[in-house]
């Protein structure tokens, strides 16, 4: 399994390289363009819509739950309560869609109902036992007080900012004193003295203050909607346990597929390699046996050729066994095993292993094959002149890093061998990070969970 290295990948995309549409750099700072960005207006729309929606949600939830609780003395209370929770689940779907459209928050669907038995009673039991239903009910209740607060703060700050920043355009339409010289807003007045915002300096200061409020409003709204994001994600999304179950099911599928692929590879290598040679060897020895009395010299020559075939078959079997699990890894650990792999690389490789103890055999094997495959990439695709392998432990994680000075351009998103390697690591809660700008160098870091070695 190998990945292709090429040009055009790994271009800088960090904060210092922010680009707009069409690849043009955004010259205006984020603080100045925030009030006119689409994101700010979408977040404002979300806050403004939250108040009327939350009133409806709160009214529905409290009314239906109260009705169901009141009817629990009869059988009718149970289906009414189940209907209330089912309605809250539907409301959760709408709120997730609203958060996705206005806040850009992509929240996965929660775990569906699991009916242990068919029929209406089975549905009622599934709704009442579902944690998703009760979290949606909690969201419907908690959304109202937060929506009132965020709506009040947002409308106040937004109105104040735009009113003050546009004050030079409309201050003259509000005369507050019979004296025409006093046009504008009165800040103070006690019958003897009054202060109006009417001279050029005061008007400019008022507009400047309004500009500060206007520039700050999108960030205030963004901070308020952060709480909404947390509520939607935490109460309306899938639970951490359900998410973990889905991840484990996916990882199990990857492990099964990988094991099946390895078995097919071993079968193919045996069939096309050592098995074919052994069949040929048996035929050659049969012919040599027949010629042994008639032509001893020809028989001896055929036995010599068969001896060469035996050596070749043994070497292929050793290589195959090394590919399954090298004996040097079991006997001497990662340091010796990785040094053996590095010696077969086409470029000089420096290996440094800093481990005070050995990890579990499964983690050790994954680390070995990860480094082995990365060094194969270096040999086949990187056009490097040197490489380095470093292995160390960081708290409860086993860290691997392979660096080369090749052409770079390795990319996990292209469906190459690196993506398959990342899936294998993910199956054991590992991580693969690739830093490979065009022109190199390439730095691949793998992180695996540390599990202590048991008695072998």
Could you describe the 3D structure shown?
With 456 residues, this protein is α+β, with helices and mostly antiparallel strands. It folds into 3 domains: 37-238, no CATH class; 248-324, Single alpha-helices involved in coiled-coils or other helix-helix interfaces (Up-down Bundle), CATH 1.20.5; 330-449, Heat Shock Protein 90, CATH 3.30.565. 61% of the residues lie in helices and 9% in strands. It is built from 13 helices and 7 strands. It has helices at 30-33, 38-70, 77-102, 120-129, 131-165, 167-170, 200-236, 240-291, 296-324, 327-332, 334-343, 361-382, 417-426; strands at residues 186-189, 194-196, 349-354, 387-394, 397-404, 431-435, 442-449. The strands form 2 sheets. It has a 5-stranded mixed beta sheet with strand order 3-4-5-7-6. The protein has a two-stranded antiparallel ribbon with strand order 1-2. β3 (349-354), α12 (361-382) and β4 (387-394) form a beta-alpha-beta unit. α2 runs antiparallel to α3 (77-102). The protein is elongated, with a radius of gyration of 36 Å. Residues 1-25 have low confidence and may be disordered.
